[in-house]
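Aim 2, interim progress: modelling of the inosine 5'-triphosphate-bound target.
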Amino acid sequence: MKIVFATSNPHKLKELKEIASSFGVTDIEFVLPGEGFDPVEDGKTFEENSLIKAREAAKLTGLMALADDSGLCVEALNGEPGIYSARYASTPQERIDKLLDAVKPFDNRKAKFVCAMTLVDKDGKILFADRGECFGSIAFSQAGTHGFGYDPIFLVDGEDGLTMAELDDEKKNEISHRGRALRKVLSYLLKK
Ligand code: ITT
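Predicted structure of the complex, ligand included:
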């Protein structure tokens, strides 16, 4: 089975392949939408944006498409940066610095990673949609080199004060929002 993964983010693709492989999936080939993939992510929720991306990739390739819209929601910031996580500042380091500054005034540093996944058929009809979440809090300074994005400042609940970027790839995939969402999609696909 061939599925187009509706993303321009190579980190997401790497994690998707690792998660699928550790789930025992051998007969799904994930491909990228390629040139011309430039969806307008103007949805108001992770779910809406993930549907927009999935439909755009299906339209472009004529294949079944899966999309991941994800981000970091900080409780004291009313859920920001949320769906704007990728656009919060210009570079990954600037996004981290901006977020550390933004949470400074608050005692409550609780946060969660969210990943909404949508699977559509080649005509854009929704086959399956669900989300995965991973709970934690914002660290006072960054630590770790694994993963991407906000991982160095996300302290994972139940992981002994380690940031997501200090966990190895296997551990991240086991507990992450993306791992949790994708395993639901894969369970749906494999039951078919
Ligand atoms: P595509 O839309 O092309 O898939 P993107 O990176 O723009 O790529 P999103 O719009 O879903 O994707 O934004 C997700 C952002 O949320 C991402 O760029 C990171 O800043 C953050 N993020 C999502 N998952 C993350 C993770 O596992 N670790 C750290 N940061 C993450």
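The mean pLDDT is 97. The chain is about 35% helix and 25% strand.
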